User: Which sequence fits this backbone?
């Protein structure tokens, strides 16, 4: 079965620290990859997505992610986090342009001021 | 541009009462529509998806049902709510193709008491 895993359940950082959140997916052919963010009490918003081309994708709010096909990974990074980045982050994969999107369990990020 | 609306935003219902959550999408035709549930501290669970009017696929056996009476309308229902139905319900849409991305509504907080 197709699946997505995220390495960390809860990450705590101080402001200005660098961030890397891991995401791995099971092999399933062609993939489109996504990161979503959910701020406290809000719905999911798209941070960035990868369909093809340059495996380093830049998104909103200074986030970027790198697709490494050989490792089935799509890790999210930000060089310097802010308190306002406190949120839950979800990795998602769309396999073979199908109608189903498989989400990881999420990583909660807490940034201390 | 496309927009998705979901209502009500919050509701508190007694055990055994019925449920109806509605979702509409504007600005696109023949979208794929989805209902997800997000329980506290857990990831996203796909409940139903629909690729067209009257076409509903259920991902997990449960106390809920879904209907799609119109192309851009998706309804989540229950005849008798259980305590375990409490959670955050998210409607979402996507469109077939290589640029397939899923977008979420604002969500509905359901508390069954």
Assistant:
């Amino acid at each position: 079965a197709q699946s997505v895993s995220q390495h960390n359940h809860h990450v705590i950082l101080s402001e200005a620290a660098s961030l890397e959140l891991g995401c791995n997916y099971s092999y399933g052919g062609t993939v489109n990859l996504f990161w979503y963010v959910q701020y406290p009490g809000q719905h999911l918003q798209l941070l960035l997505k990868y369909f093809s081309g340059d495996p380093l994708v830049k998104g909103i709010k200074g986030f970027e992610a790198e697709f490494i096909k050989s490792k089935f990974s799509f890790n999210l990074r930000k060089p310097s986090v802010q308190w306002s980045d406190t949120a839950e982050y979800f990795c998602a994969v769309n396999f073979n342009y199908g109608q189903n999107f498989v989400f990881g369990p999420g990583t909660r990020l807490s940034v201390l001021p | 541009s496309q927009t998705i609306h979901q209502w009500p935003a919050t509701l508190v219902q007694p055990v055994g009462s019925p449920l109806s959550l509605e979702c509409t999408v504007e600005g696109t035709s023949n979208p794929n529509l989805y209902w997800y549930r997000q329980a506290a501290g857990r990831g996203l669970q796909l409940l139903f998806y629909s690729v067209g009017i009257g076409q509903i696929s259920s991902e997990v056996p449960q106390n809920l049902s879904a209907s799609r009476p119109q192309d851009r309308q998706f309804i989540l229902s229950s005849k008798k709510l259980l305590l375990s139905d409490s959670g955050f319900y998210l409607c979402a849409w996507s469109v077939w193709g290589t640029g397939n991305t899923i977008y979420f509504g604002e969500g509905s907080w359901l508390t069954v008491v």
Observations:
- Chain B touches chain A at residues 32, 34, 42-44, 46, 49, 51, 90, 94, 96-107 (CB under 8 Å).
- Chain B has a mean pLDDT of 91.
- The longest strand of chain B covers residues 44-52.
- Chain B is about 0% helix and 55% strand.
